[in-house]
Amino acid sequence: MGPGTISGARFDYNDAIIRSFDHQMLLNLVRLRYQDSIFFLDLSSVVASYRRDVNAAALPNGAIAPSGTFSLGGSVGGSYGETPTISYVPLQGEDFAKRLLAPIQPAAILLLSRSGWGLERLLVCTVQQLNELPNGTAIGGVAPVRVLHFEKFQRVALLLRELQEQGYIQLNTLAEPQASVAVTAGPIPMTPEAQAMADEVRTLLAISKPPPSQEAPMAIEEATFPRSPAQVELTGRSFLGVMTFLAQLIDVPKVHQQAGLVRTTRGPDGTPFDWHEISRGLFRVHSGTSEPQTAYLKVQYRDHWFWIDDSDLEAKGTYTLLAQLFSLQAATGRIQGAPVLTIPAH
Q1: Whether residue 307 sits in one domain with residue 192
Q2: CA 311 to chain CA centroid, nearest Å
Q3: Same domain, 230 and 294
Q4: Are residues 97 and 244 in the same domain?
């Protein structure tokens, strides 16, 4: 009986677990938008046991007839049962908090880039500042107050994406110093137009270009002071910072805005700032009073529905990046010996 349960149960549990994780992450994003507390509950194990019982009985019924016939009554019964035991572990404690708040390192961005993520999405979502170019603002905690500067950062991210997509540049590791990465020449030789784009990136980042005889990779390192004029210093967001940024891209119902349930971020001119100017369509969560029918993910919160549309491939891609960042930055911070809640489900 055991092998026969694998094909169905394995995929059913797989689907249920990933959907549960996705809904929990989206719910925490919505909570952040309202400056409410967030919480992660990890599903640590699933143990399923199966039982099948079959019984049969044959009993005489009546007597032998004059014709010699004899009637015989019988009964057949059976039962089938599944009893999964599901264990939950709250992700909390000092180690988890440090991982949640620790800046994302350049090496992690390199790892994600090599797995296929584009530089624009990585930089816009995970980086707070490149050299002297801020990516929005870091002031205001989970509800930023003002956004003053982002255009030059956005331009650098766009240029690097164009150069990367066409194969003119790529990210590689540096032997020294450790945990540093570099923007190096890609497999495709640069055209004059591509070289002009690369020069614009150097200008925006205020990087001094070495003589041709001393041409070196553009090193990307964690921010230190003072900055070397030939390197790019990167200030990474924490995982909580990434969540905070994406939470600003949630469309809040007007009734909640009018009630003052969320903070309105102001732009350079003091008017309400549209965070989609920074994201350039990379992420969006819709909201409404009725349950959506074409949602990739949806949760209900404060009597409203919040969802990512199934046809919004950019938003789905950015959400997948967020889930991978959680695995890299935060999920491994589970405390050994943490309280375990076990629920037998019948």
Answers
A1: no
A2: 18
A3: no
A4: yes
Give the gyration radius of the chain's Cα atoms: 28
Same domain, 305 and 277: yes
Domains in the chain, number: 2
The model's pTM: 0.82
Distance from C-alpha of 88 to C-alpha of 45, rounded to nearest angstrom: 7
Report the amino acid identity of residue 85. Answer: T
d(CA 171, CA 158): 16
Same domain membership, residue 131 and residue 90: no
Distances (CA, A) of 246 to 25, 95, 142, 321: 11, 24, 10, 11
What whole-number distance in Å separates Cα of residue 80 and Cα of residue 280? 53
266 DSSP assignment: B
Q: How buried is residue 49: exposed, middle or buried, by Cβ count under 10 Å (0-12/13-18/19+)?
A: exposed
Domain boundary among 189, 218, 237: 237
Structure tokens at 92: 């909390």
What is the residue-level pLDDT of the chain in tens, covering all 346 positions? 566 667 667 788 888 889 999 999 999 999 999 999 999 988 888 877 777 766 766 666 555 556 666 666 667 777 777 777 888 888 888 888 888 888 888 888 888 988 889 999 999 999 999 988 999 876 667 788 888 889 999 999 999 999 999 999 988 877 665 557 888 888 999 999 999 999 999 999 988 776 555 456 677 777 766 677 777 888 899 999 999 999 999 999 999 999 999 999 998 888 999 999 999 999 999 999 999 999 999 999 999 999 999 999 999 999 999 999 998 887 654 444 444 555 555 5
Task: Give the span between the Cα atoms of 77 and 82, in whole angstroms.
Answer: 18
Report yes or no: 36 and 79 within 8 Å, Cβ to Cβ.
no
Residue 230 is part of which domain span? 105-237
